[in-house]
Amino acid sequence: MVCKDEQRYEVSFLENEGPSSLARAKLLGALDICEAGACFVEKGSIYGAAILMPQLARSMSWHRLLTIEAFRSFLLIGVSIFLQVSLLVMLARKESVYDTFAGQMFLCDLGAGCIQGQGTMCTGPSGTEITPPRLYSFDIWSTRLYVRESLKKIFPDKQDDIQDLVDPGEYGLESYWCRLLCCILFVMSMLKEATNIIGMGKVLYYPPTHADSWLGEGISGNEAVDTECPPKTAKASEPQKRDAKEEDPDGSKRSSTQSMGLNRKSWRAMKSAEELTSTASAGLDVDDGFEEDWLDSIDLRIAGMPLMWKVINAVAILLPKILVWKLTVQTGITFLMETASISDLVVNSIALTFILSIDEMICETLTSQSTLSMLSRCKDYPLFDPELAQLSDDDIASKYGGEKLEERLRVWDILAIVFPTRLVCVVVITFYFVWSYYHQHCTLTEDAEFLPNSLYPPKNSDFSIFNAIFPDFFPIETVSNPSWTMPHA
Known about the structure:
Blueprint: H1 4-16, H2 21-36, E1 38-39, H3 46-59, H4 64-101, E2 135-136, H5 138-154, H6 159-165, E3 170-171, H7 176-205, E4 215-217, E5 245-247, E6 253-255, H8 256-259, H9 264-270, H10 273-276, E7 298-300, H11 307-337, H12 342-351, H13 358-366, H14 369-377, E8 381-382, H15 393-400, H16 413-418, H17 421-441, E9 442-444, E10 450-452, H18 465-469
Parallel strand pairs: 2-3
Antiparallel strand pairs: 1-8, 4-7, 5-6, 9-10
Helix pairs in contact: 2-15, 3-4, 3-14, 4-11, 4-13, 7-11, 7-12, 7-17, 11-17
């Protein structure tokens, strides 16, 4: 069953035999505006709160309440960075220090393709050939190797028989392509955080370097500038009030609060602090003495920022966020490249993304409700021309109609189809960090396979944040004699 409005719409659409030129022009304009985008603060992250709250406090001449929220945001930023970096440094220390003390060589391409019969170099770390029945994880392989060597010590007169009869197997990679695929999926999950970093950089770059107020009175009607994608066409606004009046049998009107038997004092006692800021959502009339939505009646939006604050935010917020992202991707790729089991690869590629969500967890659980409300209501800074939102239908048809509606696919557009920008970014980032792992820990053979370098244990267990973030510039001090060397390498 189709309602009358739907029937009229279907008849109108069939009579026009397709969308009108104006509708197509509006679609092109919307795509153009969405491509330009807008600057934004992260609504659910403590990083967004650390950008927004100090500017609101500055706009309010450093009022006590907002100043407290601003300093609290910076304190929670420090907590978030400390937790993220601590976990990542511990994980990197495990891979670079403790595993080396345990005698675990870097995996590189040990056993890659040997299971499927595609590998050319199938020699394992023990010097024997890697075959499917003899392939184990490092823990199991090292335990079996320890048992064989112990038997040799216990029965020195039977060392040759023990060497021939006790087979510890080999340590190697179960699936080269599964590992590579998991690395790509992991980097893909990191791309959202990279987008947030770029968005924060835009917030510090595009708004003017002036001490503008981020707080103003609410704007309605054709003076409003919508930063949504696409923006809504400006129209003369009418008072948006709910039907808070009800007819009495005698024809008089009464308010919805009166119909519920509530007076002002009892209603306030029933509502929470958050609901008090939005009385309009409860269907209450301003004629009853209630205020309109308090936060909707003000204008919170990204505006100009003094140069001092841009520098502070760049050094104290943006730079640490970049380093944490870099350390997360670098440590995550190393962790995945060192994972031999297929099941562990799939699980770890998803579990590692938890570290970058710590800032969102802190924002959700430790920040105040007022900060969350400010974040959710802060409007973006449009990178498109705000006058586009005020164009009339004739201007839209003139700007985006005509020849632009007749554009068709060009030859070089095939590149954009075959190589989407974000997919290319994922592949490039994955290639860089995987290559960095190979360059640091492996040696390329004549058969175009990467085998692990000789294992040099560290002199001690010292491992700093600089060793984790910049391993090429701050290498770990190691002993001069290797504890293991690749057989027949």
